[in-house]
Structures are given as C-alpha cells and as structure tokens.
Amino acid sequence: MTNTPIKILVIGEYSIFRSGLRMLLETDTNLRIIGEASKLETAQQIVEEESPDLILVDLPDLAEKDHFSFLENVTIPVLVLVGKYDAGVYQRCLTIGVRGLVLKEENADTLFKAIAKIHDGEIWFDRMIMGQTILQLVSEKRLLKEYPKAHVTNALTEREKQVVDLICRGMKNKDIADELFITETTVRHHLTSVFNKLEISSRLELVIYAFKNSLVMMPSGNGSFHGNGRTMQQQSALVG
Q1: Residue 158 region, left (φ>0) first, then alpha (ψ -120 to 50), else beta?
Q2: How far apart are CA 200 and CA 115, in angstroms?
Q3: CA–CA distance, 131 with 122 (Å, rounded to integer)
C-alpha cells in the first residue's frame, strides 16, 4: 500500500523560483505540487478548489501586511521560506500560527524534513533562532494569545506539572516517560489534559504559558534557564 502524496501549493513572486522549487520537490515521490501562485488572490482560489495539505510560501524580504493576513487566515499548515533572519518577521510568523520557517540557505534535506514534520502535525523552526525568539517574545510579553488566569494552573495535577516542567526542558515524550517511569501513552494523556485545561494547542504555547505563570523559572538575560542549566537553544528542540 503506497502513501498518498502530500499536496503542496507553492506561493512565490518569481516564476523561475517557483519552477525550480517544483522541480526540487517533485524529486520526492511523496510530494505533489498541485498549484503555483504569484498573487494571493490566485493562491486563495487554489486553496478553495484543490485543498492542498500544505502551503509553501516564498516570503518577500519586504513582506506586506496582506501576506501576513493571508497566512493568518488560512487553516492549512504553512511553511515559510525566508532569505535572511529578521526578528520582526520571525516573531510575526510565530504569533499568527505559521507552522514552520526555513532559511533559503539551508539544504534540500532540511526542507524535505520540515515538510514531513509539519504534515505530521509538528512545528519546524531553526533551534538557535527559535530560542532567541521565544526569549524575546517572553520579555516583550508578545504572547500568542491571552491565556487563562493563573488560578487555572492550580487545576493541574502534580504529575501534569512535572510533565510541563520536563517539556520546558526540551524533553521528548519518550524521555519524559523514562524520567517519570510511565509509558509514552500516559505522557500523551497528561499532555492532552494539560492542553484542555489551559486552552492551548501546542508545546510552544505551553512553554510561553509556563514562563508567564511561573510554572518554570524565567530565562535570564544570557538566554539560559535558572537552575537547570539548559539553554534556550536546547529547550527549543521541542519544536524543530
């Protein structure tokens, strides 16, 4: 039984770039380009008619408000390609719910991995830059959403709080299970319960919530956690 190819819509200003990207992606039989668009209006039409699984966007260096508005309002996972790191663009992508960001200087394998991870429901961001961005988001209080008041945190069980702490240390489900002597299935059950109680939907949101409500120690100015010695770069492994 063969896997159904991931249907991708490519959005980019330049035809040569889009064509090159198509040729690259279609070397992988698990990927299928179902449309290209240079204008957002055309992209919206393709989304409505073809229902792609993922949207791959070549974001202009001088991205306009319309680009972010489009990305924020589509319900399909979005992966953004950027030519250089720009703190403002990176934060905007995070806060509007873009699922991943890849620098154009990365190799093709990185792009393929990012597409696969995002299609599987995960998030893909560069680890080092992700750490810097989370730190800045927290310090500026530019959070993804307004979270429930702190008293909601009291509804978490002690075990759930332990799981939250370990997630904020950058640990994967398997490592958390080993640390707490429980199964990965139980870890997933605890995570589902935490997400429901806190009204959040991702590990990234959980990390920011935990910082804001002092479930974990705030990072210091040099980007490290107080007490556990893990850097923000290590912590950000949970999303990439």
Answers
A1: alpha
A2: 23
A3: 17
Helix (H), strand (E) at residue 57:
strand 54-58
For strand 100-103 and strand 78-82, is the pairing parallel, antiparallel, or unpaired?
A: parallel
- When the pLDDT of each residue in the chain is averaged and rounded to a whole number, the result is 77
Q: Using alpha carbons, select from 47, 45, 66, 63 the residue that is nearest to residue 55.
A: 47
Q: Describe the chain by its helix, strand, coil percentages, rounded to 5.
A: 50, 15, 35
Are 239 and 123 in contact by the 8 Å Cβ rule? The answer is: yes
Q: Hey, what are 105's tokens?
A: 């200087």
Domains (range + CATH), the chain: 6-124 (3.40.50.2300), 144-239 (1.10.10.10)
* Burial of 184 from C-beta contacts in 10 A (0-12 / 13-18 / 19+): middle
pLDDT in tens, 155-209: 899 999 999 888 876 677 888 899 999 999 999 999 999 999 988 877 767 877 7
Residue 215 pLDDT class (50, 70, 90 cuts) = confident
What pTM did the predictor assign? 0.61
How many whole angstroms from its chain centre is CA 41?
25
Please tell me the distance from the alpha carbon of residue 198 to that of residue 195, in angstroms, as a whole number: 5
